Amino acid sequence: MAEPQHTIHEKKDEPRAAAGEFEPKIIGFLCNWCSYAGADLCGVSRYQYPTNVRPVRVMCSTRISPHLVLDIFKAGADGILLGGCHLNDCHYISGNFYTEKRVRLMLKLLEDAGVDPKRLRLEWVSASEGEKFSKVVTEFTETIRNLGPNQVKKDAALRSKIAAADEASDTFRLRALVGKELGLEKTGNVYGNKLEQTELEKLIDIATKEEFERSLILELSKDKARSVKELGKIMEVPTDRVLRHIVVLRQKNMLSMDHPEGFTPTYKTIIIGGEQ
Amino acid sequence: MTMAETKKTDPNEKPRIGVYVCHCGSNIGGFVDVPSVAEYAKTLPDVVYATDNLYTCAEDGLTSIREGIRKHNLNRVVVASCTPRTHAPLFQTTCESAGLNKYLFTFVNIREHCSWVHMKEKEKATLKARDLIKMGVARARLLMPQEEEKVDVEPTGLVIGGGVSGMTAALSLADMGFPVHLVEKEGELGGFVRNLNNLYVTEKSATETIKPLIEKVKASKNVKLHLNSQVKSVEGFIGNYDVVMASKGAEDIKTKVGTIVVATGALEFVPEGLYGYNQYPNIVTLTEFEILCKKKSLPSLKNVAFIQCVGSRGQKVSYCSRICCNVAIKNAINIVDNYENMLGLAEKNGTIIDTVPVEKKVPDEILERRRRRRGRERGEEGEAEEVKLGPSEKIEVTVFNRDVMAYGVEHELTYNKAREHRVKFVRYTPENPPKVFMEGNQLMVSYFHETLKLDRSMPVDMVVLSTPMVPQLDTREMSQMLKVPQGQDGWFLEAHVKLRPVDFATDGIYVCGTCKGPADITEAATQAAAAASRAAIPMAKGYVQAEALTSVVDDIKCSGCGTCIQVCPYGAMRKNDKGLAETIVAACKGCGCCGATCPEMAITMTNYTDAQLLAEAKATLEEV
């Protein structure tokens, strides 16, 4: 074996991490065939990197649904790294193309939720790119260190927003759209009509925003009945838009009118049985 | 290895987890405080036993796992050592030998992902190792025993395409004792090779070369030949493909096969609009030239120009067609050496075929030209030209090329031979290709001589355009029917160019010959033999066993929208009688795309459930 190479990320004269200094907690979802193998090679070659990433092995990056990512952010992760095979090199042929589409949705939702999208990073690392893996981890850890801790545990408003993003990512509408996106682009719909990528992305962006806002209304009205005006103010969304969402949510039987405050009606989320 | 009787693990039984932390000599032990990590593991929920081993993978390490399972009645095992990519099977087998279902085992990597990459910070590395084990334990608590499904394989093969590759594959399978259906869309066997005159290296006639192969195929008891037939539909998965074949003027044939070899071949690119093709007389493609040679109906020639890389390498197609240099060199030598024999002499041996399986049949103009030429030869209009030209001295052959790719030793020798036989090779750059035009009645080629840095031109009697092989027109339909992928250039795409060159990613379907890219006959036949032996493996074994890493559909949640069927790269999802999605376990590879896509969240992955992944990830986020 070649002489192991050492990349020393910590300079000797730098003061040792003081007790209580922020140590980011980063989850790394690594696909078995490329990124995990790349991380293995990185170890075999002794490329050094910070200790902050906790790898979780999955068979393919395509396994990572937006729900997994958002739920883990909700649980307080400071960063999430997704590793897959390079495009066209996926062990499962096309898995990582779907990953790309899903990551786009995740980033949109993180932005809506007020989480810096830089906290999520998608990287293609092949089984032969051991050094790249160490670079990616070193860089990403630094990025997260600079961003500071995920405030979700301390900030109630952020918590409900991430919860809303998580809920939105699980809606039939977004999952179906993102799931069908690639097919609509490449092979077309049942009539064989292909759709432009930009056109589809526009459509998905609109749906994402709507679903996020609706989920946020449900989230905010869970424990306390709220009026349109109040919701609009918290969410920083025009009241007519809030009202339109409320009409939809009421049609879906997800929100009910609670009690009027003066002449203003307030709404409360309907919580069904053990679900939620 | 003798398998001990597997304990029935009650899924509802409270987890009893054993954790084995490995020193790996000093590979882990030197950089992580292993004993303290093992002590820490004892404090984790549901862990009833934890220990450290010098080498967990050595016999005494494995024995300690087996003993632990027996003594402490463990129903989950966590090993924290190296990488699952190399060692998981060993520990899984060990668990099984002690009666524990192998899916109740979890691997934690604290070597490649910890001790080896944090060699200078033992304290932090130890903390990380503890965390990783905590995550592994969280995952182990949610593991469930899984059964692997065995699927029988029908010992019958299907070969699509009756060219050299198809026939070789079919014969190879037949000789191994498997019945084979060989489907050819045309009325006779032979494929593209039927167009060719002689074959390079051996110099033998193409017809004569494939004759024995055709005869063997026809004589083989195991080969069921379907001429004038096409595969209409294919449903199923490895071992159990239901195939419908449609023949002209006959009823559809339904049959069941275990494996499929795709050998549908290729076409020659028609250089419409390039170098005066179809515009001026006597401009033909390489294959058309071969047909003329084979039919012995070449016109009289004094000057022949070959132009290489017509339409390929970034013009109409991006790739290099590999074999056209060799074919052009072969033909160039043929002309200078054997010109007299190739002229319009009486045709004696072999039948002449009039159909050219190229994208477009021979253009009418060429046929017209040929008719006129024959007429001339019979003295119908004007006088037939004197064709008694001596060999090499009287014929000039020029090969315009970007660079000659005579790959392999034999072809390099042939290239040298061509140069010795006065074939001229003139290089051109893609920016400055030769031009073909008419000057009065004379066909001319002008070019920029790279060495002399001069514009030159020369009269020619015939221009032969070396155009690339292109995929069959129905490749796309075929790929959709078989649910196998095409590469960027439209060729069928193998699972891995080096590791699995004749397999499709889909189990039970194999690929060989020119349908996966340009190849000559030797290469095609070699691939065919390889594909046949790959296809024979599951058929000889009689069954396939699927790892229990597959998707599972929740009937209650599924709405039958079919999105999973669209996204599955293996065709492993189908609708059942109730119109709901269902996993074909034998075909599923466990990537999880359907699970992450399902709009109703009705699909989970065995052994990689959301709950397991979330528990694993969140374990490290818990406040200590």
Largest interface: A-B, 56 and 52 residues
Q: What's the total count of β strands of chain B?
A: 28
The count of helical stretches of chain B stands at 16
Q: What helical percentage do the residues of chain B reach?
A: 25-40%
Question: What's the mean pLDDT score of chain A?
Answer: 90
CATH topology of the domain at 26-151 in chain A: Rossmann fold
Judging from the principal axes of the Cα atoms, what is the shape of chain B? elongated
Quantity of strands of chain A, as a count? 7
SSE arrangement of chain A, N to C: EHEHEHEHHHHEHHEE
Strand order of the largest sheet of chain B: 8-7-6-12-23
Q: What is the CATH T-level topology of the largest domain in chain B?
A: FAD/NAD(P)-binding domain
Shape of chain A: flat
Assembly annotation = heterodimer
- How far is the N terminus from the C terminus of chain A? 54 Å
State the helical fraction of chain A.
40-55%
Overall CATH architecture of the largest domain in chain B: 3-Layer(bba) Sandwich
How does this model look, in words?
The complex is a heterodimer of chains A (276) and B (624). Chain A is α/β, with parallel strands linked by helices. Among the domains of chain A are: 26-151, Rossmann fold (3-Layer(aba) Sandwich), CATH 3.40.50; 222-276, Winged helix-like DNA-binding domain superfamily/Winged helix DNA-binding domain (Arc Repressor Mutant, subunit A). Chain A is 47% helix and 14% strand. Chain A contains 9 helices and 7 strands, in the order E-H-E-H-E-H-E-H-H-H-H-E-H-H-E-E. The longest helix of chain A is centred in the last third of the chain and has 24 residues, at 197-220. A 5-stranded parallel beta sheet of chain B has the order 8-7-6-12-23, covered by helices on one side. A 5-stranded parallel beta sheet of chain B has the order 14-21-15-16-17. A 4-stranded parallel beta sheet of chain B has the order 2-1-3-4, with helices on both faces. In chain B, helix 8 packs parallel to helix 9 (324-342). Classes of the chains: A alpha/beta (276), B alpha/beta (624). The interface between A and B is large, with 56 and 52 residues.
